[in-house]
Design a protein that fits this description.
By secondary structure, this protein is an alpha+beta fold. Helix content is about 20%, strand content about 40%. It has one domain. Strands 1, 2, 3, 4, 5 and 6 form a 6-stranded antiparallel β-sheet that branches. The longest helix has 11 residues.
Length: about 120
Amino acid sequence: MSLTKKEIHAKLRKPVGKPVKFNYPGGVDNKRGCVRDRVIVWSGISRSRAVYWDVVDLIEFPDEKHKRWIRIGYYRQVGDKLRWAGQTTITEPCHIMKRIFAQAAKKKWFRDVLPRA
């Protein structure tokens, strides 16, 4: 059986509306929230024929000072199995992500990859 693109997207969208938790060593600053939205981008196929899907999540943490966060991660697909492969992701409040992209945009190589309006 081979999953269609529509089926893959449906599976990758399943976390939207679901709870998410971030547990840190020692239990300090653990966070509980909810995935509110997700962008899915096909990334490519490796030499081993694994398919990669990148995701950008909007996560809301109701108990945090900054409630809206962005997480960038990815899935690895082998056959019909999709596995979260982004155990180490970047997850920051939206205002920090804005600062990251603004700093990166000072570099020509970064601006060159941005779509033109």
